[in-house]
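Continuing the batch. This is chain 6 of the set; chains 1 through 5 are on the previous pages. Same settings as before, nothing changed between runs. Recording input and output for traceability.
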Amino acid sequence: MKRNYLAGAVLLLFATAASSADQGANAAAVPGTAKARNACLDEVAKITGIARNTLSVIEVLPSEAGIGVNIQVPGAQAPWSCLADANGKVQGASYTGSEGKL
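Output for chain 6:
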């Protein structure tokens, strides 16, 4: 139940953030985005067992709920989404595609 709630919250965060055209472009200027980005890369690498240096950050989306990071994993058909705070504490990471395609 907690995972489903988290996945829904992360998707809602991304949908809300994506509605603002300039929000993603200004992510580098928002304090904490680098820490969140790095923490999310570490978390997705740990969960997937894929080397961190092979992962690609698609976008970083700061919001009031936290900092959303979309990450492409080699071989995955959909990105992973991760939510972290400005201090780099990961609140959760999940695959956005069908789990049958992991």
